[in-house]
Write a structure and sequence with these properties.
Layout (H helix, E strand, L loop, with lengths): L2 H10 L4 H13 L3 H14 L4 H13 L3 H14 L4 H13 L3 H14 L6 H9 L9 E5 L5 E5 L9 H8 L5 E2 L12 H16 L1 H6 L6 E6 L6 H11 L3 E5 L11 H15 L3 E6 L14 H14 L8 E7 L17 E4 L5 H12 L4 E2 L3 H7 L5 H22 L5 E2 H8 L6 H14 L7 H7 L4
Helix pairs in contact: 1-2, 2-3, 3-4, 4-5, 4-6, 5-6, 6-7, 13-14, 15-16, 15-17, 16-18, 17-18, 19-20
């Protein structure tokens, strides 16, 4: 909604604090800083404990060049409410601005510990490059509001120390993610979860039993299926179920413009995961790193793929390291990755079924003004929708209700009928994927890797 519409809504409801916050944000976006500041002061007068307004006001004060005053305001707020994640995040930015990299790192960690959704890779990269890294002794330097430093013991033991911590910093990235998700956080998909338990969780939880049968814990597992169906979330939940360190690696964290550097980065990533075992090393969109070498003309891409094959094939070194790959296009992987000892276990992650869609709808309905959800009826209308598609359904319904709420100046609840109406505006993104997958499963499936796709589609070979 544009600024003029917001102003009109505010005239109808002048003391609506959420609406005032939206207007203040819109004014800041338009660089109307003085008016935005007045609006924030108006909110604080109406609601003295409103943390969002206080953080926004501190940010505006910093933009005006009064960083010290902004810091004092944030510290005053955090003394009263030390669970305000946005305040910790802004405090991290201001500490970095004041060349206090270590303090910035600690404030940043506090922010994402409270609210992981505030993770900012760009900010973290700046902090690390400026020298803000976790102490190898498992302690962190914390600064009090008076400017004094003290050391606080870390609750979690850092698996990296000495040269390993240096290696992590040299990679210019933090790819270790807190594994705080479990299967209960993933809506439905019970058949897939059970498949993961049998192929992944039980071997890692009972290594001695499997060793008695000559089987080692770890290895490679490939998750494949349509986009937006929860492959990344399932990987995080798997790490949470086995209480392992979770490493999420993206393409940008491996590729380097200099010859040979990409291979070195990939080797160091595997070494760090081995050092932190038991661990889950997750490669999203793995087809970008493990493409078929026949499709590559340049030698650089081939060399990186060969290095990847070498690393994943080190069975003894990788004991206790589960290597998970996720892809929408498994048929684009080099066939060498699908041999025994590498990604020899494939798990098909299909679109959520009726029960799973109902669970996903309940999850999206949390903390929203939803009445008469009728999740069963909505789920039936969303057959073939991915988890991402269901989010889009909720987003469209929410936007429509927000527009109505702004005009009336009060909360208008979302109903199941609203969701059914918005579902007609969203096309299932999985259909196009199945068009391609069906052809590969029928005509390029000599090994039987894609039989699960055919079973899902009800097609007999």
């Amino acid at each position: 909604m544009d600024l003029n519409s917001l102003r009109a809504a505010l005239e109808a409801s002048p003391d609506n604090v959420p609406l005032l916050l939206m207007v203040a944000t819109a004014l800041e976006d338009e660089f109307e800083l003085e008016e935005s500041r007045d609006m924030l002061n108006r909110i604080i007068k109406l609601d003295p404990k409103n943390a969002s307004a206080q953080v926004s006001l501190a940010r505006l004060i910093d933009l005006e060049g009064r960083t010290s005053e902004a810091i004092l305001r944030l510290e005053s707020l955090l003394e009263k409410d030390d669970r305000c994640a946005s305040a910790w995040l802004l405090r991290a930015r201001l500490a970095l601005k004041e060349s206090e990299a270590q303090a910035a790192r600690d404030f940043y960690e506090k922010a994402i510990e409270i609210d992981q959704a505030l993770s900012d890779d760009s900010l973290l990269e700046q902090i690390i490059k400026s020298g803000g890294s976790t102490s190898s002794k498992g302690k962190r330097a914390m600064m009090t509001s008076s400017g004094d430093f003290f050391e606080e013991e870390d609750d979690d033991t850092d698996p990296f120390s000495g040269l390993d911590a240096v290696a992590a910093r040299d990679l210019d990235m933090e790819f270790r993610v807190k594994a705080d998700k479990k299967f209960e956080d993933v809506g439905g998909m019970e058949a897939v979860k059970e498949d993961i338990r049998m192929k992944i969780i039980h071997p890692l939880k009972n290594p001695d039993l499997f060793k008695a049968y000559g089987k080692k814990a770890g290895g490679g597992v490939l998750l494949y299926g349509p986009p937006g169906c929860g492959k990344t979330l399932l990987s995080q939940a798997t790490a949470g179920e086995i209480k392992a360190n979770f490493f999420s690696v993206g393409l940008h964290q491996v590729l380097d413009m200099y010859i040979g550097e990409s291979e070195q980065k990939l080797h160091r990533i595997f070494e760090l995961a081995r050092q932190a075992a038991p661990s889950v090393l997750f490669f999203d969109e793995i087809d970008a790193l493990a493409a078929d070498r026949r499709d590559l003309r340049g030698s650089a891409g081939r060399t990186l793929i060969n290095q990847f094959l070498t690393e994943i094939g080190e069975e003894d070194a990788n004991e206790g390291v589960l290597i998970l790959g996720a892809t929408n296009a498994p048929w684009h992987l080099d066939s060498a990755f699908l041999r025994p000892g590498r990604f020899d276990r494939l798990i098909f992650v299909p679109p959520p079924d009726q029960a799973a869609r109902e669970e996903i709808l309940k999850i999206h309905a949390k903390e929203k003004p939803v009445v008469a959800l009728e999740e069963s009826a909505v789920a039936k209308k969303c057959d073939g929708f991915s988890g991402a598609d269901l989010r889009a359904v909720f987003d469209r319904a929410t936007e429509a209700k927000l527009d109505e709420a702004m005009k009336k100046g009060k909360i208008i609840p979302i109903t199941g009928k609203d969701l059914i109406k918005s579902s007609k505006q969203v096309k299932p993104s999985t259909r196009k994927w199945f068009e391609s997958a069906k052809n590969y499963a029928l005509y390029a499936n000599q090994s039987g890797f894609y039989d699960d796709v055919l079973n899902y589609l009800g097609i007999k070979k």
